[in-house]
Amino acid sequence: MATQPESAFARDESRRRALIVEDEEPIRELLTLHLGLGGFDCVGVGDGRQALERLQAESFDLLVLDISLPGLDGLSLCRAVRRSGPNMTIPIIMLTARSEESDKVLGLEGGADDYLTKPFGVREFMARTAAIMRRREGWGPGPQYANRRIISVAGIRIDPARRRVTCDGREVALTPQEFSLLYLLASNPDIVFSREELLEKVWDQEVFVTERGVDTLVKRLRRKVEIDPAHPTRVVTERGAGYKFSGSEEAR
Ligand code: CA
After folding, report:
1. Among 62, 57, 14, 10, which residue's Cα sits nearest to residue 35?
2. pTM, to two decimals
3. How far is the CA of 24 from the centre of ligand 1 (A)?
4. What integer pLDDT is reported at residue 250 of this predicted model?
5. Pseudo-torsion of CA 91, 84, 179, 34, nearest 10°?
6. pLDDT for 30-44, tens place per residue?
7. Which residues of the chain have pLDDT under 70?
8. Ion ligand 1 — residues with CB under 5 Å?
């Protein structure tokens, strides 16, 4: 048997890679087809544990994750991916059944960037994916990234061009939304943003997230940038108004 030329195995760098973790084969195949048309090379997996093995071994550009899976559930998988390995900041879209609606908040807390409730239309799925990838690769369509200036405030340094964040000198890995939120707040220290404003500025219009979703994102961000997330001194709550980044040293 002739050996395959090496190039047959080489990764095409112009195409992005998506991992679709879904045990319902028709959905997996539908998403594989449409993401394929959208420029993704897809790997489909129907078991949570197998998916985790792959996610710990190789890096992907997008993760589509069903919540109820054999082997390991989607929420646990999501948390595990965010905790360690080569996909800590990967964009994650969660799929939930209507009966699992309450899992949505848990999904966002666990590190998902967006979620879709089944049954969903392929067009909506692709629009959400495009929104997440835009944010990922262009660092958001918003004007807040226009000049890509480095922000350095209250022990936090953000380099948007390199997408690097250091917190008291230690590098922290942020998901696309966490990054957008921190950049917006830290580049406007002491300015209070309402949840509604944050929804508008951090998420794209196509993405539907509730104000509770803002709170869960803030909670996630605090775990990464606060010394004591239970008593935040950087991303602080303005009761009844929203959130702000505290730029004053005396707050610490
Ligand atoms: Ca399922």
Report:
1. 62
2. 0.66
3. 6
4. 44
5. -10
6. 999 999 988 899 999
7. 1-14, 101, 137-148, 204-209, 249-252
8. 23, 66, 68
